[in-house]
């Protein structure tokens, strides 16, 4: 860091500035200043403690934590120590980083009540938060911003999918295009079967490139190198024969074992 920038950082710290203000004064980023301060501890020592937790504040927090929510702790802390107000999120970070606990589970306990039960919005929510909440409400007849019309096609998981209906949940309204094409020609896909691509190219969605394959043959076809390599009805017969031969071999092996046992 040039001497001019160093002097600005030193002057800012001596004036009680925090790191963000010192970085802005020197024309550097906060991350850049933090890295530079690690290499220059003499300047880092000038950083004002006004944004650090004082020992008496820490002791008070540790004694006040048990049985209270982060919101309650923040409100009480800010009333007692107004010099550096804390948010509920910052209280949570302090508790986590210090290895402490409030003793609360975060769940509603039997007999417990929500903090806003019986209270009007104005009693616990500022006007700007109320307006933001209203803007986020789903309007009657409205649709999500990412909704897609019926007929939309997208690639997902290596397959082309088409939206065929408006459903809830929306994922039930999507179908693979190659299955739609096959069923238009042959009817519903039987249970235990898959529609595969003869040449292995999932982008080649033509009826002549589709073939119905029993799922029980998939492993055998893969082991024989017949999936995606000119998959045909003949290949299915080869896989059937291979499975039949394997079953026969197991039966023969079982009989021989029984004979040896005698």
Description:
- It is a single chain.
- This protein is mainly alpha-helical.
- It has three domains: 49 residues; 43 residues; 100 residues, no CATH class.
- Helix content is 47%, strand content 8%.
- The protein has twelve helices and five strands.
- The protein has a three-stranded antiparallel β-sheet with strand order 1-2-3.
- 11% of the residues are buried.
- The model has no long low-confidence stretch (mean pLDDT 84).
How many helices? Answer: 12
Radius of gyration: 35 Å
> What is the H/E order?
HHHHHHHHHEEEHEEHH
Main sheet: strands, sense, barrel: 3 strands, antiparallel
Mean pLDDT, all residues: 84
Helical coverage, percent range: 40-55%
Uncertain parts = none
Characterize the quaternary organization of these chains: single chain
Q: Structural class, judged by helices and strands?
A: mainly alpha
Count structural domains: 3
Strand neighbour order, sheet with most strands: 1-2-3
Topology:
Elements: H1 3-14, H2 19-26, H3 30-39, H4 41-44, H5 55-64, H6 70-80, H7 88-97, H8 121-124, H9 127-136, E1 153-156, E2 159-163, E3 174-176, H10 177-186, E4 193-197, E5 210-214, H11 218-223, H12 233-261
Antiparallel strand pairs: 1-2, 2-3, 4-5
Annotation keywords:
262 residues; mainly alpha; 3 domains; 12 helices; elongated
């Amino acid at each position: 860091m040039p001497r001019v920038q160093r002097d600005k950082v030193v002057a800012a710290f001596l004036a009680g500035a925090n790191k963000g203000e010192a970085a802005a004064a020197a024309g550097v980023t906060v991350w850049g200043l933090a890295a530079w301060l690690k290499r220059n501890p003499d300047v880092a020592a000038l950083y004002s403690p006004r944004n650090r937790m004082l020992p008496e504040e820490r002791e008070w927090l540790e004694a006040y934590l048990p049985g209270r929510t982060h919101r309650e702790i923040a409100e009480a802390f800010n009333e007692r120590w107004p010099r550096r107000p804390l948010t509920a999120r910052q209280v949570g970070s302090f508790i986590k980083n210090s290895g402490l606990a409030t003793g609360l589970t975060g769940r509603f306990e039997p007999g417990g009540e929500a903090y806003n039960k019986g209270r009007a919005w104005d009693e616990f929510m500022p006007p700007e938060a109320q307006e933001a909440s209203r803007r986020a409400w789903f309007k009657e007849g409205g649709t999500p911003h990412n909704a897609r019309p019926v007929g939309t096609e997208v690639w997902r998981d290596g397959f082309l999918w088409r939206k065929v209906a408006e459903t809830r949940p929306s994922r039930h309204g999507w179908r693979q295009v190659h299955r739609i094409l096959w069923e238009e020609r042959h009817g519903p896909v039987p249970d235990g079967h898959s529609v595969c691509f003869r040449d292995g190219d999932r982008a080649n969605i033509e009826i002549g490139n589709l073939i119905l394959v029993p799922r029980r043959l998939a492993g055998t076809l893969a082991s024989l190198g017949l999936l995606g390599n000119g998959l045909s009805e003949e290949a299915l017969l080869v896989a059937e024969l291979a499975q039949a031969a394997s079953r026969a071999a197991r039966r023969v092996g079982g009989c021989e074992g029984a004979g040896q046992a005698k």
